[in-house]
Design brief:
alpha/beta, TIM Barrel, 2 domains, 39% helix, globular, binds adenosine monophosphate, binds manganese (II) ion
């Protein structure tokens, strides 16, 4: 029998919409046997998810998806098997949270200069009600105000690069993200490498640096990945002797959830990262 695994998911502690226990319930309904919760820059949902998974008889892996910068590009580094009490990890996440809050406030300042937002700053409620504010929250608030048709439209009109509400952000570097994950006993996974706007040469350099600073794996299996991308990532993992990880990057029901991860179906010659992760109580 195959294990159904999903090592990349979000809850409402970051920009997902489900509570951790609801996420676990949905995963159980979909017969997921091994689940990691990997909220953006926070471990706040892990305790609830772990307890729900224990009740459901599901193996749970404590995770986090850390925002990092590399050559002006924003990267996401998933940490799996992390100890959320580790002080180095906690400090790193606290710093990211500060950066996020000031960025969202700066986005609010920019939007308020526009007549559509003068009396209704969508960032105020986001900052007041969200533990880990992301631009996705702001986009949803703009949609709720009727100033965009969808979150994508909100990015296209207001928040994306070149738009009035765009505020660039420098994130702590790749090495510091990997170091925080490793300090907490976790494995670092380069999330969705095919989604970065990098040439194949640059992606190769990124993999070299990632491995050199202690990275363990690439996400090689995600929903809606083209056969071409899948082959490219499998090749990269093999070339750089990085293990492979798989996950849905689930955020909300209604958007495609594909509990991936028949682990046996990772590409040939790519070692499953799951084999290196210790079972957690
Ligand atoms: P943040 O971490 O606050 O920069 O928010 C990042 C999230 O916003 C990403 O995970 C995406 O889901 C979403 N996002 C960023 N840029 C865009 C874009 N141009 N179009 C749609 N969604 C975007
Ligand atoms: Mn997200
Ligand atoms: Mn991501
Ligand atoms: Mn994600």
């Amino acid at each position: 029998m195959f294990d159904l695994i999903d090592l990349h998911t979000h809850s409402h502690h970051s920009d997902g919409t489900l509570a951790p226990a609801q996420l676990v319930a949905l995963a159980a309904q979909r017969h997921v046997q091994v689940l990691a919760l990997t909220d953006h820059d926070t471990t706040a949902g892990l305790a609830e998810a772990a307890a729900a998974a224990r009740d459901a008889g599901m193996r749970f892996i404590s995770g986090v998806e850390i925002t990092a910068g590399w050559r002006g590009q924003e990267l996401h580094i998933v940490g799996l098997g992390v100890d959320q009490e580790n002080p180095a990890l906690k400090n790193h996440l606290a710093h990211l949270l500060q950066l996020r809050r000031s960025r969202i406030a700066a986005i609010g300042e920019r939007l308020r200069r526009n007549s559509s937002f003068r009396d209704a700053d969508p960032t105020a409620a986001v900052l007041a009600s969200t533990a880990v504010p992301t631009r996705t929250h702001v986009a949803r608030a703009i949609v709720a105000q009727g100033l965009a048709k969808s979150t994508q439209d909100a990015f296209d009109r207001w928040l994306g690069r070149g738009c009035k509400g765009h505020v660039p952000q420098e994130w702590p570097d790749l090495a510091s993200a990997v170091a925080a994950i490793r300090a907490a006993g976790g494995h670092a996974v380069l999330a969705h490498p095919h989604r970065y706007k990098l040439s194949s040469g640059a992606l190769g350099n990124l993999c070299t640096e990632f491995k050199d600073c202690g990275g363990s794996a690439l996400e090689v299996s995600l929903p809606a990945m083209s056969p071409n991308d899948a082959a490219r990532l499998a090749r990269l993992a093999r070339q750089h002797a990085l293990a492979g990880s798989a996950g849905s990057d689930f955020h909300e029901p209604g958007l495609a959830w594909r509990p991936l991860g028949r682990f046996a179906k990772l590409p040939d010659g790519v070692e499953p990262l799951l084999a290196r992760l210790q079972d957690q109580p």
